[in-house]
């Protein structure tokens, strides 16, 4: 079971959009029931990263992070989305 953190500044708006897109990506690639997603504020990420496999964030990479980091911005802009999707799928195989 992969533990995924999804963060934005307030842990409400853009992270909700990104979570939906990540779930669609993972489920359409056969990862149903193989992951859990926790929606957080980016300020919470360093403290929660010890128990996560990776963080997807719509903000800059926080310091003191103890898990892999993926920029979630391409899920909002569409630019570079395929690269980020591949990165997430690669992390699921890790």
From TrEMBL:
Record-linked Gene3D superfamilies: 3.40.50.2300
The UniProt record lists the keyword Manganese: no
Enzyme class, first EC level, given as a word: transferase
Keywords recorded for this protein, A-Z: Sugar transport, Transferase, Transport
Sequence ranges assigned to domain PTS EIIB type-2 in this UniProt record: 2-94
Keyword Mitochondrion: no
Family matches, as Pfam families: PTS_IIB (PF02302)
A Gene Ontology molecular function term of the record: transferase activity
Enzyme Commission number(s) of this protein: 2.7.1.-
Protein name: PTS sugar transporter subunit IIB
Species this chain originates from: Anaerococcus cruorum
Lineage, opening ranks: Bacteria, Bacillati, Bacillota, Tissierellia, Tissierellales
